[in-house]
Design goal:
Blueprint (H helix, E strand, L loop, with lengths): L1 E4 L5 H9 L3 E4 L11 H11 L2 E4 L2 H10 L4 E5 L6 H20 L5 E4 L4 E3 L1
Length: about 120
């Protein structure tokens, strides 16, 4: 699986995913990446077949209006430490991978205690 991690999330998340064997980049990888708007991130995700990881509910709204693509992993928990964020990902990565391996899955809401697939 390939991911693009949105600006408001730490670059450390992308590095952690890479360390686990995934292809992950953070938006700061791109020139002026910290300034990329949602549509630019969406276009990168579509062109590079990447799953957007974001806390930005605008991606959920866009999904409802436009549908897929792209695929989105939307984090639905408040501010937490990077360490706890990485721990939540590590605990849920097998299920995240399983859900996105299904052809019909285009959006997964990631709560601290569960994942919800659309």
């Amino acid at each position: 699986m390939k991911f693009i991690v949105d600006t408001q999330l730490p670059p450390r998340l992308a590095k952690s995913l890479v360390d686990k064997g995934f292809d992950a980049i953070h938006t700061t990888y791109f020139t002026d990446g910290h300034l990329l708007d949602d549509e630019s991130i969406r276009q990168i995700a579509i062109s590079k077949d990447r799953i957007i990881i974001s806390k930005d509910s605008d991606f959920f709204d866009s999904f409802l209006i436009r549908g897929a693509p792209p695929r989105v992993l939307l984090l639905r928990f408040g501010n937490i430490t990077n360490k706890n964020l990485i721990a939540l990902f590590e605990a849920q990565l097998p299920l995240i991978e399983q859900l996105f391996d299904k052809d019909e899955t285009t959006l997964v809401e990631f709560f601290a205690d569960k994942l919800v697939r659309f």
